[in-house]
C-alpha cells in the first residue's frame, strides 16, 4: 500500500484506507449522534446498548440525525467544492445555509447559543456580508454574557478536519473561522482546532496500528493553539480533569466545549482499556478489532455523557477518522438519515455523507 506523506502540502491521491477514514468522519459522527438522540432529554433511560428509537428534542424518527449532523452538512455542501473556509466568500455560504436551516428547511432542535446568533441575523441572510454579521452577533452575545463556549461549534466541526488534509495550519485556521461564526469564546474555537487536527492527522497517518488512544491525542495538536492558552490546554490533558487517569469519571457539564471534547478523548482511553481485554483484540483480525473498538467508543460516549447526541457526534467524528467507516455496524449505517433534504425533497442518507466527505477531502488536497 502506498502511504501519503502526512504533512506534505502536495500529498497527492488518498489510499483506500485513508478514504475509508475520510468517509468515517461524517458517518460515525451521524451514528454517534443518532445513538444519543433518544436519551438526550433524559426521559428515556439509557440501559444497555443504545437503541434505534428516535424521539429526543427534535422528535426525530428512528435513525434520524439531529442538529449536530444537520449543521455539519451545511458546512459540507460548501467544503465539497474545495472552498477556503478562512475567506468570507465561503463563510457567507455556510452562514446563509444555517439561516435557511432555521427559517426554511425545518430545523426542530437548535442549541440556545446558536439560535440566539442565527435569530439575530436571519432576516438579512440574503444580503452580502452575512458571515461578518453573524460573527458580530456572536461577539455581541459573548460581550453580554461572557459565556459562549458551548459545545455547539464543536458538534458540527468534524468535516472541517477534512478540508485541507495536507496542511495543519490551514486546517486549524478553517476550524477557528467556522467556530467563530457562532461562538466567540476562544475556548470553543480551540476545541474545534484540536478536534480538526486529530481528524486530519488520523486520516493522513498510515493504516490503524491498533492503539485507539493515540487517535485522540490532544497533546500532539497544541502547537496550533495560541501561546497564551496552550498551557491551559496542556494542563487539562496532562494531570488535569481530562488526564487519562480520569477515564472513568469524565467531567460533568458537557455542554461546555472543553468538557465535551474531554468526553471524546476519555472515551478513547476507556475503549483502549476495555478493548484490550476483548477476545477480538487477541484474534489479530484488524477489521474485527476495529469494529469492536468503534462500538466501545460510541457506546462509551453516549453512556458517560449528559448531552448524549452531541458527545456521540463529537466522539464519532474522531473515531471515524481513526477506525474508518468500515468499522461501523451496518445496521446503524443503513438507518441514519436526515436534513438537509436533497433537491428532490428526500432525506440525506449514509451515501450522501460518504460522498460529501470524499469530495471535501479530495477537493482540498489539490489546493
Ligand atoms: Mg443534537
List keywords for this structure.
367 residues, mainly alpha, ADP-ribosylglycohydrolase fold, 14 helices, 2 strands, 54% helix, 1% strand, globular, binds magnesium ion
Short description:
This protein has 367 residues and is an all-alpha fold. The chain contains 14 helices and 2 strands, in the order H-H-H-H-H-H-H-H-H-H-H-H-H-E-E-H.
Task: Describe the overall structure.
The protein has 367 residues and is mainly alpha-helical. The protein has a single domain (16-365), classed as ADP-ribosylglycohydrolase fold, CATH 1.10.4080. The protein is built from 14 helices and two strands. The chain has a two-stranded antiparallel ribbon with strand order 1-2. The radius of gyration is 19 Å and the shape is globular. The two termini are 24 Å apart. Mean pLDDT is 93; it is low at 1-11. It binds magnesium ion. Magnesium ion is lined by residues 66-68, 109, 309-310. This is Adp-ribosylation/crystallin j1.
Topology:
Blueprint: H1 16-36, H2 67-79, H3 88-103, H4 112-121, H5 130-145, H6 168-179, H7 186-204, H8 227-237, H9 257-275, H10 279-283, H11 286-304, H12 308-323, H13 330-335, E1 337-338, E2 348-349, H14 350-365
Antiparallel strand pairs: 1-2
Bound molecules: magnesium ion (MG).
Amino acid at each position: 500500500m502506498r502511504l501519503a506523506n502526512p504533512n506534505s502540502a502536495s500529498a497527492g491521491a488518498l489510499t483506500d484506507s485513508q478514504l475509508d477514514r475520510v468517509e468515517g468522519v461524517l458517518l460515525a459522527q451521524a451514528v454517534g449522534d443518532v445513538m444519543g438522540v433518544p436519551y438526550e432529554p433524559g426521559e428515556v433511560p439509557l440501559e444497555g446498548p443504545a437503541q434505534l428509537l428516535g424521539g429526543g428534542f427534535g422528535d426525530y424518527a428512528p435513525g434520524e440525525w439531529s442538529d449536530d449532523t444537520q449543521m455539519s452538512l451545511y458546512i459540507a455542501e460548501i467544503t465539497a467544492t474545495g472552498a477556503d473556509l478562512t475567506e468570507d466568500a465561503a463563510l457567507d455560504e455556510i452562514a446563509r445555509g444555517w439561516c435557511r436551516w432555521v427559517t426554511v428547511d425545518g430545523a426542530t432542535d437548535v442549541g440556545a447559543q446558536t439560535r440566539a446568533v442565527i435569530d439575530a441575523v436571519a432576516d438579512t441572510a440574503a444580503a452580502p456580508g452575512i458571515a461578518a454579521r453573524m460573527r458580530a452577533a456572536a461577539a455581541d452575545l459573548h460581550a453580554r454574557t461572557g459565556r459562549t463556549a458551548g459545545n455547539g461549534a464543536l458538534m458540527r466541526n468534524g468535516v472541517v478536519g477534512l478540508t485541507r488534509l495536507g496542511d495543519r495550519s490551514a486546517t486549524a485556521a478553517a476550524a477557528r473561522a467556522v467556530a467563530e461564526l457562532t461562538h466567540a469564546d476562544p475556548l470553543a474555537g480551540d476545541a474545534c482546532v484540536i478536534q480538526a487536527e486529530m481528524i486530519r492527522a488520523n486520516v493522513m497517518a498510515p493504516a490503524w496500528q491498533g492503539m485507539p488512544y493515540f487517535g485522540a491525542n490532544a497533546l500532539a495538536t497544541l502547537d496550533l493553539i495560541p501561546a497564551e492558552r496552550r498551557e491551559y490546554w496542556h494542563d487539562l490533558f496532562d494531570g488535569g480533569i481530562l488526564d487519562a487517569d480520569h477515564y472513568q469519571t469524565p467531567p460533568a457539564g458537557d455542554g461546555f466545549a472543553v468538557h465535551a471534547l474531554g468526553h471524546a478523548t476519555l472515551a478513547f482511553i476507556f475503549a483502549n482499556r476495555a478493548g484490550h481485554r476483548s477476545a477480538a483484540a487477541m484474534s489479530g483480525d484488524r477489521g474485527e478489532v476495529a469494529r469492536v473498538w468503534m462500538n466501545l467508543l460510541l457506546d462509551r460516549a453516549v453512556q458517560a455523557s449528559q448531552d448524549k447526541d452531541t458527545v456521540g457526534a463529537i466522539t464519532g467524528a474522531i473515531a471515524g477518522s481513526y477506525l474508518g467507516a468500515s468499522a461501523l455496524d451496518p445496521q446503524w449505517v443503513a438507518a441514519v438519515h436526515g436534513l438537509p433534504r436533497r433537491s428532490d425533497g428526500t432525506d440525506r442518507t449514509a451515501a450522501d455523507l460518504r460522498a460529501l466527505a470524499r469530495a471535501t477531502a479530495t477537493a482540498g488536497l489539490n489546493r
